[in-house]
Specification:
Chain lengths: 386, 163
Amino acid sequence: MKNIISKKVLDMQPSGIRVFFDLVLGMKDVISLGVGEPDFATPWNIREAGIFSLEKGFTTYTSNKGLMKLRLIIRNHVKKISGVEYCPEDEILVTVGVSEGFDLLLRTIISKGDEVLIPHPSFVSYAPLTELCGGKPVLIGLSQENKFKLLPWMIDENCTKNTKAIILNYPCNPTGASYTRQELLELKKIIVKHNLLVISDEIYGDLTYDFEHTPFVSLGGVKERTVYLNGFSKGYAMTGWRIGYACGPKEIISAMTKIHQYSIMCVATTSQWAACEALSYGERSVLEMKKEYAKRRNFVVERLNSMGLDCIMPEGAFYAFPSIKKISNNSLEFSSQLLKKKKVAVVPGGAFGTNSHIRISYASKLEVLKEALTRIEDFLNSNERY
Amino acid sequence: MDEILEVLEKDARRCPEDIARLTKRSTDSVKKAIKKFEKDGVILGYKTIINKDALDKDDKEKEVLALIEVNIMPQKDLGFDHVAERIYSFSEVKSCYLISGTYDLLVIVQGKDLHTVAKFVAEKLSPLEHVRGTATHFLLKKYKEDDIILKHKGENKRIAISY
């Protein structure tokens, strides 16, 4: 058979670091700081709620939009943290992680030629999924000098008559950068001026260290132009449960639900019951994990800077994003050598669109971080790096 | 609670240099703070939690633990404290708590065997003035102690690289 793969998919850029990933996965005794998920297991009360739902035999489909009970809990939670109330009937959709919510949203709003602003470096899926929908990703380059923050003039400069939406992701994977309320208010002005839709991926919102996380929708007057994406993976250590949610204007959520009902049907029922428990009784666990991450963050960033890898203090998430510019402008080569010579795995910045950085996850036990950082320091000090 | 204490409570062996990095302080200020906590009686000691069940058979120090509920008659002006002091001063007593409910003190006693503990209760504890009654529960198995689950757990395996 010829032409099996669609042109759209053929045109998708293959991940340049797939080979590197295979190398990591094939090697033994590697200390990995490349992990994008918590090292904590899901808190027991949440796991227990999932088990209990199975015992009770809750194993059928749920409503496409998700259990009403869960949507009600999400409504209350979002109202508590943002002051904005979403109707559980038609403004909330339970999704398979933020990943699905994001994919659905793009498919819902993008028509051919629409431009989407993506502050860059950014999460790996943003640009490829935009292209898959026929949209045009417009990458806004952020720099370490600006602490990887998006500034209002950058939006101004990149808007055209075709610009439809902007993706905000804060705290950011991979940079850890986030925004204070004041900074967001400044961004909001320009966003409103250009009449943009805001895709707000706030999956790391629970893990904000130096100030309180401000949901974009809480800024006032932006509910109609914002889709708030969040989930349970990072804050509640529930990556494997694959569950998140989207809150937004009825028109958009209904359209997203249309696709969701055909492609997904509904999120795994067990996960939905566990998520009910997470939002109802999980806050304390989240705060405890956050405290732990904050300390590790201080540790890792201090060590990186002291060994000469310039690194901003991330305001959230669990990643440090040091510059390797002084040593190399090829993050893939740097990471490969580090892996081969010292058996430490990090994610090359190239995966996120910058070759002068690497992403280091501090979602690991302190002992592991210590050993890995010592090895990185040895690597930097050795003459035979390459 | 002070961040230094948070770190030490989880791992008493954490060195001042590491604590300094974790809490964004200088090593010197961490050392000073720890000294002060020790001096003020905030930090009372550092110990190791040993899972004695995991020791080799020959190496196992025989010991029996009992949780004893003690009913006491509070004294005028002194409440429970005076009787409690007389009880917790015995070296056999590992822990002693005043609690609400149907009895007053929960006393944890350690002895080399059942007989020794029973003897302590019968000869030392029960006859004490103001002690109205006791109920002894021998501890059969420890599952979790001081936040630590004693059964060795498997590691949570994560894939080495993910976004």
